[in-house]
Design a protein that fits this description.
Elements: H1 14-19, E1 23-30, H2 35-47, E2 50-56, H3 65-71, H4 74-77, E3 79-83, H5 86-95, E4 98-103, E5 110-111, E6 122-128, H6 136-141, E7 144-147, H7 159-174
Parallel strand pairs: 1-2, 1-6, 2-3, 4-6, 4-7, 5-7
Helix pairs in contact: 2-3, 2-7
Amino acid sequence: MKKLHITEMNRLTPEEFKQKKKTPLVVVLDNVRSMHNVGAIFRTGDAFLIEAVYLCGITCIPPHTEIHKTALGAEDTVDWKYIQDTHQAIEQLKNNNYIVLAIEQAQGSTMLPDIQVDDKKKYAVVLGNEVKGVQQSVVDVCDDCIEIPQLGTKHSLNVSVSGGIIIWEFFKKLTEFK
């Protein structure tokens, strides 16, 4: 088996990416402090054609060299917007018929393998701060909470790892990749 060279991967140009049909998913970053996590979400979002990233609160915005280190230019391909208050971002999404889901460990949360999605609907997922998670007041206004099952001694994942797992799961369920 021979590894593919970058020129053999049929990568989209940024212009082709902008024209491509998107996965109906927006990722909302609620006070994510690490620019490396922000960049990694952009890069994963690019890989799976998400609609946009909403950057809220203290979350840093592009252009920034620390975001670029992990995004590798995806901050220029994936649409994004900054909204100071995460609650306002959620309100905008709900007004545009998105189902908004917090990614959080909470009473009554739905385990990721059990989520049911409708490929005719649009979704937004909220990822929270590296220490405090998604703000409780934000969880309160979301439609549901999704929890990633964890069986070891640690019951937390890095924001970019959680984002990658969630984005991949929604991509599989919402696109023809099924």
